[in-house]
Amino acid sequence: MSDSDSDDWSEEWIPYSQRAEWADVVPLAQDDGERPIVAIAYSPKFREVFDYFRAIIAHKEKSPRALELTADALQLNPANYTVWQYRRDILRALGSDLYEELDYLEEVIRDNAKNYQVWHHRRVIVEMLNNPSKELELTEVALERDNKNYHAWQHRQWAIKAFDLYENELTFVDRLIAEDIRNNSAWNQRFFVLKHFGLTPEVVQREIQYTMNRIRVVKNNESAWNYLGGILRHGDHGTVNRNVEVISFCEELYASGVRSPYLLAFLIDLYKEQCLQQTNEADAEVLSKKVYNLCSDMSKNHDVVRRKYWQYVADQLKLKLSEK
């Protein structure tokens, strides 16, 4: 909730200046200087809450009422790092029930799922408790609302890595990819999990089959093509051109009339690598022509926005071949 959402006093909310238990505190106004260049039009509620917040910081007060005040301040500005940090200081000083804090954070995250400070605070509390039991469920709920929420994915990866929660993650990722085959975040999570367990030749071969099957379903899926290239480069000495099955798969797609720019880009990389590794001049010439034709097709028809890039790719190959 932002300042603009709370411009007026509500019937339930009592200003701090009218609360008897806060009578001993003198609010500390923000000092913007005599002639601020751009004066921010804070609402009365926003101004009052933060004036009192500045006052308790100045007096280093860490009390239950100060904790309550931080909740009001965060409702008005949930991205304020200083308020979150001071709230943590208060929680430590009071020895507060941190499980109650996790419950509070679930509510805050529900309305602020893309707020870095909220997730950071959550991480610190989980670390203090040394208990990640709610984190996978929490992030799953956040991802159901937005399956590409970067902060939720980042928090999930942190929890999995910090507390070794890898066991069932591949099943979770499979479900997300089945629901949305273009979910790049889910493909990235799949690679994250497999790297932990180890990309053995057997795993690489399994993943190649898995990815090709999904490309057959949706051929113009950038996420799957990127994943396929990443798996091959990780499993085969940094190249994509040594797996005969993948080469045949790509060439068959092309021969059948598929002109996905991701397929063409994959073939360009594949043929370019083969060409530069080729010792037979005639074979190298055949491969280089394939690269030039595909680059031309990309620049004129399938990826016109990046036409200069594809021209550059072709020119760089010509340069490297001239230097051999």
TrEMBL record:
InterPro entries assigned: Prenyl_trans_a
Similarity-based family: Belongs to the protein prenyltransferase subunit alpha family.
Record keywords, A-Z: Magnesium, Prenyltransferase, Repeat, Transferase
Cofactor(s) essential for the protein: Mg(2+)
PROSITE patterns: PFTA (PS51147)
GO cellular component: CAAX-protein geranylgeranyltransferase complex; protein farnesyltransferase complex
Chain's gene name: FNTA
Keyword Transferase tagged: yes
Gene3D superfamilies on file: Protein prenylyltransferase
Pfam family, one: PPTA
Entry's EC annotation: 2.5.1.58, 2.5.1.59
GO MF, one example: CAAX-protein geranylgeranyltransferase activity
UniProt entry tagged with the keyword Cytoplasm: no
Protein name: Protein farnesyltransferase/geranylgeranyltransferase type-1 subunit alpha
